[in-house]
Amino acid sequence: MSTRPEVLFPLFAALTKLDGIGPKTAQTLEQAGVEKPRDVLMTLPHSGIDRQRRASVRDVVPPATATVEVTIGQHYPPKSRGRPYRVQVTDTQTSFQLVFFHAKGDYLQRLLPTGQKRLVSGKVELFDGIAQMVHPDHVLPLAEADNIPAFEPVYPLHAGISQKLMWKATRSALEMAPDLAEWIDPALKEREGWPDWLAALENVHTPNANTDLSPDDLARQRLAYDELLAHQITLALARAVVRRAKGTPSRGTGALREKVLGALPYAPTGAQTRAVSEMVEDLATDLRMNRLLQGDVGSGKTLVAFMALLTVVEAGGQGVMMAPTEILARQHLDGLQPLAESAGVMLEILTGRDKGAERARKLAALATGEIDILVGTHAVFQKDVDFHDLRLAVIDEQHRFGVAQRMELGAKGHAVDVLVMTATPIPRSLALAQYGDMDVSVLDEKPPGRTPVQTALVSTGRMDEVVEKLRHAVAEGCQAYWVCPLVEESEVVDMTAAEERFKRLRTALGEGVVGLVHGQMPSADKDAAMARFVAGETKVLVATTVIEVGVNVPNASIMVIERAESFGLAQLHQLRGRVGRGAAASTSLLMYQAPLTESGRRRLEILRETEDGFRISEEDLAMRGAGDVIGTAQSGLPRFRIADLERQGALMALAQSDARKLLHDDPTLESPRGKAARVLLWLMEQDKAIRLISVG
Fold first, then answer.
1. Measured distance CA(148)–CA(271) in Å, rounded
2. Are the C-beta atoms of residues 182 and 196 closer than 8 Å to each other?
């Protein structure tokens, strides 16, 4: 079924097919991302107005909305320009005035003929003790009273679109909506008490009270679930395609791993042991491993990844560990070299720096299988790099490598197993949204020997004190990071540029003590500046956030973050994780510009309270919303119209297990429920999934 099912045609027709929408309105709606009747149905009301009939305006406490039947009395046109036009009206108990500004008298005479009855609805306010309704929202003859719902839904609006128009358009779209076969597992639907799809749509667009507008409302939950399910079916199909490509089973003997564990000065944490056994199990099957290793700053991901690499070496294969930059690749090499030596394993590095005879020697050793584990940058992707038997690729920091590069790497070996490591703790619902096609291992314990980082808040007004403290610390042999918010002075944002800060600190602390790295520098200069800091030649490194990922300088024990309130929580947590890596007591100073906003203060206080990255990420999600937490632009995070990942996160996990089970039982989606799920994929515009089914 590679064309849209006919039953959905009406929902994908032109907007102008809906009541009250002409070409001009259609254009306005399209600018707001509403392009077809389906989008109108998926734009849910966010609040409502109580318009139930009252006997008198006295039955509400102003200011409040009232809907009453009135007898129209005398008209009072304005005496001078700019004055309002007033119409006296009487309900069962009292008389009050309808007030209009800039209205044409003849229009109001027609709308409100003296002596007749009308139903009016609008906001009642007291003005000098007299009740009045300024510009009623509705004025209707009694015969049309049913056109005012008792509880009127209020839609999120785009300029130029009125509530009346949205009300009409949604009614018209509901009439077009077909009754579709059920795609939700019947037992789940019954357990949750969810209505059918069409009934759910009708319910959300005709709420009876404010409780019907909450994310916990059953109709809303069901529609959110549909959206999440379609997304998870897409990811599950992608996962199935990867897994169908047969992998090579690598059954390790455990011999090399035992040697390394014996050489370690400490025992691995329970979380590390658990993650290793999950990977060993994956590697032993003939399905391809596609796993995400998620760990907080300093939770010991590298050791876990190395254990997985040793497993394939034990089985006679080779492994590769990829890092986004040369500095990180060298850091992995330095960290792993002693472990590799204790196991008698050949470890080598390949980066863009390798040239000529040296490079040729490494390539030959790779091709013959003499090198067991290669650490490298994307230089590993080059055409002339051939492995003897590559089985496992470990990729550090997911967001630097796209899916396409993962595939390219796969082509280097025979259906290579893939392990992606990320140091960004992501809340479970987002991890499932972003990496739902992967299996996830989580490291949520800290290994022994890491010193806690003291976090303090300081206002920018105390800058001189901070610089003075820094001078003392440097004199005692400490190293420090100083993170600046932005590069290039911009008049608009009064944030100190890295260059300005660098010059000032250099003046205060002396030539040669301070280094600088920022995103606009050529990478060779960046690498050189970082290398000088790692070697301890410079004591203070002024940097933009380029250092948030992975750099390890055990001697650095101070982290100053300027204008900390302008960073996201997860980012601040990552930056703070750059210190506290050695034995020295470490400090992180969050400098803020007073006065702080409420949310700015909350963010900085959470950091002061906890070092648990997962807790921080959950708070971040609650405060900023899903798109911001991952940075939607680069995240590939889907845009959900109905589902609210902050408040309905638990539905995402449900959708994932449901989608995987559906595809396990019915891989080609041919059963009645499978066919209904195909319609769901078309409805949710998951074209990618539809292509995957047709490939399958």
1. 59
2. yes
Q: Any idea what DSSP says for residue 486?
A: B
Contact indicator for 577, 552 with CB cutoff of 8 Å: no
What whole-number distance in Å separates Cα of residue 102 and Cα of residue 76? Answer: 13
**C-alpha to C-alpha distance for 582 and 554, rounded to whole angstroms:** 4
Instruction: Please state the φ and ψ torsions of residue 592, each to the nearest 5 degrees.
Output: -125, 155
Kindly report the pTM of this predicted structure.
0.69
Q: For residues 624 and 691, what is the distance between their CA atoms, to the nearest angstrom? A: 34
The helix-helix angle for 326-343 and 255-263 (nearest 10°) equals 100
DSSP string, 438-453: SEEEEE-SPPTTPPPE
Rounded Cα distance between 166 and 42, Å, is: 12
HSE on the CB side for 274, CA within 13 Å? 12
Alpha-carbon span 444 to 298, nearest angstrom: 10
Radius of gyration of the chain (CA): 32
Long-range contacts of 18-26 (CB under 8 A, 24+ apart): 18/168, 18/169, 18/172, 18/173, 18/176, 19/168, 19/169, 19/171, 19/172, 20/165, 20/168, 20/169, 20/172, 21/165, 21/169, 25/160, 25/161, 25/165
Return the closest-CA partner of residue 466 out of 573, 556, 589, 579. 589
Across the chain, which has 696 residues, the per-10-residue mean pLDDT values are: 85 92 90 90 92 93 93 92 92 95 88 95 91 94 88 84 88 95 96 97 93 92 95 85 78 94 90 95 90 83 94 96 85 90 95 90 95 90 86 76 57 75 76 78 78 88 92 92 69 56 90 84 82 90 69 85 84 84 85 86 89 80 55 50 82 91 91 95 85 64
β partners of residue 321: 375, 394
CA angle 135, 141, 142 (to 5 degrees): 120
Q: Record the tokens describing residue 629, joined without a space.
A: 């937490």
Would you give the distance in Å from CA 48 to the centre of its chain? Answer: 29
Count the alpha carbons within 13 Å of 596 in the hemisphere toward its beta carbon: 20
DSSP state of 113: -
Contact 427, 618 (CB under 8 A): yes
- Structure confidence by residue, pLDDT tens digits, 474-511: 999 899 999 987 544 554 443 456 788 888 999 999 88
Could you identify the residue written with the tokens 């204790």? Answer: 342
